Amino acid sequence: MFTAGLCWGGGFLVSALGTYAHNLWLIYLGYGVLGGCGLGIGYISPVSTLIKWFPDRPGMATGMAIMGFGGGAFIASPLSVWLMSKFSTPTHVGVAETFIAMGIIYFCFMMVGAVIVRVPAPGWKPAGYTPPVVAQKLITKNDVFVYDALKTPQFWLIWWVLCLNVTAGIGVIGQASAMSQEMFPGHVTAVAAAGFVGLMSLFNMAGRFIWASTSDIIGRKNTYFCFFAIGTVLYALVPWTGSIGSVALFVLCFLVIISMYGGGFATVPAYLKDMFGTRYVGAIHGWLLTAWSAAGIFGPVLVNYIREYQIDHGVPKAQAYNSTMYIMAGLLVVGFICNFMIKAVHARFHMKPDHEAERAQAAVAAAGEPAGA
Amino acid sequence: MANEAQSSSMTLKLVLAWGFVGIPLAWGVTQTIINAMKLFR
After folding, report:
1. Residues of chain A with CATH 1.20.1250.20
2. How confident is the model at residue A354 (pLDDT cuts 50, 70, 90)?
3. Which residues contact A360 (CB under 8 A, 6 or more apart)?
4. pLDDT tens digits, one per residue of A18-42
5. Number of domains forming the structure of chain B
6. In chain A, what percentage of residues exceed pLDDT 90?
7. Cβ A251–B39 below 8 Å, yes or no?
8. Complex ipTM tops 0.90
9. Residue A361 CB neighbours (<10 A)
10. Are A296 and A171 in contact (CB under 8 A)?
11. Domain spanning A138-346: which CATH class is it, in words?
12. Could you tell me if B27 lies within 8 Å of chain A, comparing CB atoms?
């Protein structure tokens, strides 16, 4: 977390330097490369730590952490606008000073986390919690080494599950404002569309906590079944809401879709913990997040290119998103199948007990034996 | 007596921790809701 704070805060300061110097490459280096490293490290470390602190409710714990990640946008967005208004002068808009102020604020907040967060001792359990005696098929009690996890079909199936869920969500997030205005011309103004985007952010954040907590009760696999089944139906309904001119139904569809987009992010660490154990869950989660990066390319590209293609071929703007919605629904069907194919990890991938642990156990056993035995 | 002191110290820590996270978040959520209300005007 300390490293994450250094990279993230440092990235803002380098970006401020780039802004002063009018050097775009310095901004890429600061906000993109350094900031990106800080973001990735800062995202994974609290998640893997919380899973270890809450073995009884890993979904709720990761949901809370990832909800915080989503909630950051609620603070950063108005804060940066406010700071720029304070730092702006008639000659410049105050971006560099805002970068500096935000870099320092982020660094201080992240240092508080780095100082107080601790990893529990191995085998730690909350008071009163007894792990289930009857083994559940999709919740392992073993650990899988990070590079062995990459060799399992389960890892790649979950990779596709996340990628497809995120592709469907991320594509519409970027286009939500334009889409709502183009599908309901004259009914949704630019100001109302901005309100719609804000409402989506709220549901995105709330979905992270609610769906991830629900996964502790109904199981991770069933939670993803819900995402894919409900998502498919809702995406298929969106063109219909446009055809009947119902803004309320359109908004409702997207609010539920976006809650499941956030829920997908928040539930996946607990899914990984169930499949591969807690020991390397942070590192495995890091590898899995490449699915997010891939989806960040697929989603917007799909939505934008298909829309452009439709408009170029004479489809009215109000109907230009219909095909995209059906394609998104199709992607979710593929995701449903991938999720269906996920089974427990084969025992050959489970880690063997450490030599150190064996030696410790042997020493304990020897100490417990009567002298001379 | 020691238990009471420990308990009140724990409560204070909890309030501080939740405040540290919750107050900025509540401010941000309020701003977002104010903007989102424009959708219904």
Report:
1. 138-346
2. low
3. none
4. 998 888 999 999 999 999 999 888 8
5. 1
6. 32
7. yes
8. no
9. 11
10. no
11. mainly alpha
12. yes
